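Sample entry (261 residues):
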Amino acid sequence: MTTTSIICRPTRDTFVRFAIVLAAFFGFGLYFFYDGAIGYRKANEVYFSYQAFAELGKDASAATAWKAEKAMQPLISAEQVEGEWIVEGKYPLPANCDAARTTPAEAADHAAMSKSWAECWTAYTARMHYPVKPAEHPYDTAAIREQWIAGGVCMCISAIIIFFILRTRSRVMSLRGDTVTACGQTFQVADISRLDLRQWGKGFKGIAYATVNGRKIRLDGMTYGGFDPAAGQPAEEFMNALLARYQGEILEYEQTEKTAG
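Predicted structure, serialized as C-alpha cells:
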C-alpha cells in the first residue's frame, strides 16, 4: 500500500472569512464603546442645548419675558456628580461640556434670538460642529451601560474568533499512509467504523464525518485543502486516498434515499 502523504493546510479563503467576521464584531465593539464613552454624552449635550435654545427663543420673543440674567446662566441646567455633568440626575454630558457652565454667545444675543432662535441654533451648531437636528430623546445612564455591555460582548466574541483563527492555523487535515489527522486528532483508517459523506459532494460541499470509537470526527475539506482546481483540489485528493484505504460503511445521499424508500 502506498505511503504517500497528503497534507491539507488551512485555505486562504478560510482566513478571509474569519477576518470578515472578526472585523465586523471588533468594529461593532468599538462603535458600542464609543457611544458608551463619548457618543451618547455628546448626543445628550446637543439634545438639551436644543431644548434650551428653543426655551430661550420663546422668552426672547416676548418683550417682558426675557431676562438678561438668563444669558449669564449655564445653557444647560446640570450638576456635577463625581466629576461628571448630569442632567436631571440620569442624563450624562461630556466632561468638557461648556454649555453646562455658560450660555454661548449665539443664545445670549437677545435681538438675534427674538428674531429667529432657529437661525441662532444653526449658527451655534455650525461653530461647534454639532448636528442641527438633535436626537429624538436623551440617553440615560442605563442606555450608556447597555453600550458598554454590548461592546464587551462583541469583544468577547472577537477574542473567541481569534482563538479559532489561531487553532485553525495550527492544524492540518492529513493522510500519512494509514494514519489520519483531523480536528486535532490522529487515528488509523482501520479505526473508522463509518464515513458520512452526505455533505461532502452535495449541499455543504466538503464536510464529512468519520465515526471513530463511537465519536464523530469532522473532516472539513472547505477549511483544510479546499477544492481549487488550480491547486489540484487537495481536499478531494485527500478523500479519494482515504476511500481507497477504507473498507467500512459509507453513508451517502443515495443510500439514505434507498433506505427511506
